[in-house]
Amino acid sequence: xxxxxxxxxxxxxxxxxxxxxxxxxxxxxxxxxxxxxxxxxxxxxxxxxxxxxxxxxxxxxxxxxxxxxxxxxxxxxxxxxxxxxxxxxxxxxxxxxxxxxxxxxxxxxxxxxxxxxxxxxxxxxxxxxxxxxxxxxxxxxxxxxxxxxxxxxxxxxxxxxxxxxxxxxxxxxxxxxxxxxxxxxxxxxxxxxxxxxxxxxxxxxxxxxxxxxxxxxxxxxxxxxxxxxxxxxxxxxxxxxxxxxxxxxxxxxxxxxxxxxxxxxxxxxxxxxxxxxxxxxxxxxxxxxxxxxxxxxxxxxxxxxxxxxxxxxxxxxxxxxxxxxxxxxxxxxxxxxxxxxxxxxxxxxxxxxxxxxxxxxx
Length: 362
Description:
Elements: H1 2-6, H2 22-50, H3 66-69, H4 80-94, H5 100-125, H6 134-155, E1 161-163, E2 171-173, H7 177-196, H8 202-221, H9 224-230, H10 241-259, H11 268-285, H12 292-295, H13 297-316, H14 326-332, H15 337-357
Helix pairs in contact: 2-4, 2-10, 4-5, 4-10, 4-11, 5-6, 5-11, 6-7, 7-11, 7-13, 8-10, 8-11, 8-15
């Protein structure tokens, strides 16, 4: 918005020329999103607590950690609304709103946020323990993913060619199957973040480092000189997603202000599904989908731990982990919650750094 309003005035005052630079608007987007989060946070927390938007912790299936988590049933949920408000307002303010990729990522984030909101609304306010039916939630996620995949697939005849990490000048051509692939990426990341959101600050902390990594990917992918030097596909316009990633980072930092241990608010499905969808959308737009396995390794590990646990119990009646997702397994080994969270953050930082390094290993 400010780009469209103020940059054309550069001939009247040279200072407005600064709005041309993505780096300037990226920094300001992150700062703005953080300020919005911190400013609105206390009011939202009070409002959520006032309407009774608090999760219920059941003993059944959670008895071994019930004592460690029982106080959390007094903490309001649906704090993801704060993240959505901060990201959307900051991106609208500092982004180039003529850019289709920005609108696409904002659309995915808001759409999956809406799916999560319905689930949270039913569970927390309508006191329906099951919330949104799993099938309906899955249909919503797949629907968003298919829409994104179709838009990108139709935008370029070569978009279906997937870049492969560590390999130069070799692509995985999917053809029309790319649309299904996009749906898997979107639904997979949104569900993985949802599964990771089980300890104070865990999911949002890991998201911060992934947002930074994909901010770098967005910038170099949309920069003709850098992309040529790194020998990665150049995609005009994706540099603007750096602003979106910065807003995601700033909003996440602001939310962590309230979500750090002991948390005063949880993000709920409205936050976790939206964050996962946003990450998946940026990965698709920058054609760095397969790097999600590395950069988002914590989320992958959490999702895989659940699949292994469920599969093993159904097939062998034996569990692989003490409890799934895997962060609860480490809790049951005796590690305090804060130590589990910080160690997961450390691993996430290392994976994000390695993901960025792979740009030079192409």
